[in-house]
């Protein structure tokens, strides 16, 4: 590289620096790859080397030979600094408390969607019951009252509670059977049936 080009680079001439890059980028890249053994890391070294060379351009000797040795020296230092930073990062990460592994929430999400659909089906089936059947089912299955307590709460005979609850269960079983045809097992309705006295 001639004295004039060196002077232009030292003065901050971007065109002269672009010529420097064009002439030596491949040599810096190959050197960086030999130092790192990684194509991607070598690309980072090239970028950082020329950024550092631009920053240090005023240190270029006004007269001398090729700037290739100087650039390769800058690349060597950049690589050393990158390794040091990576090592510090790894050491810092090793000191961090270990986080619990993040659970895969896909199965839980699928379960929630299925539960929401079953709940919607149960609500729809419940809404199709007569009002007095809803009352008995709510008291016996929902509130956990026995027949006598439900009869007292509604002011009706125990036998009426039993017959209304029986009709409500049969209607819900029919709804569950229809859902079972669609591929659902009707677990929500069965759980309502099993929780009643």
From TrEMBL:
Instruction: Report the CDD domains cross-referenced here.
Output: Sigma70_r4 (cd06171)
| InterPro entries per record | RNA_pol_sigma-70-like, RNA_pol_sigma-70_dom, RNA_pol_sigma70_r2, RNA_pol_sigma70_r4_t2, RNA_pol_sigma_r2, RNA_pol_sigma_r3/r4-like, WH-like_DNA-bd_sf
Ranges where the RNA polymerase sigma factor 70 region 4 type domain occurs: 121-172
Sorted alphabetically, which keywords does the UniProt record give? Sigma factor, Transcription, Transcription regulation
Gene3D superfamilies recorded for this chain?
1.10.1740.10, Winged helix-like DNA-binding domain superfamily/Winged helix DNA-binding domain
User: Could you tell me which residue ranges the RNA polymerase sigma-70 region domain spans?
Assistant: 20-88
The family classification in the record reads: Belongs to the sigma-70 factor family. ECF subfamily.
Q: What is this protein called?
A: RNA polymerase sigma factor
Q: Which organism is it from?
A: Nonomuraea typhae
Taxonomy of origin reads:
Bacteria, Bacillati, Actinomycetota, Actinomycetes, Streptosporangiales
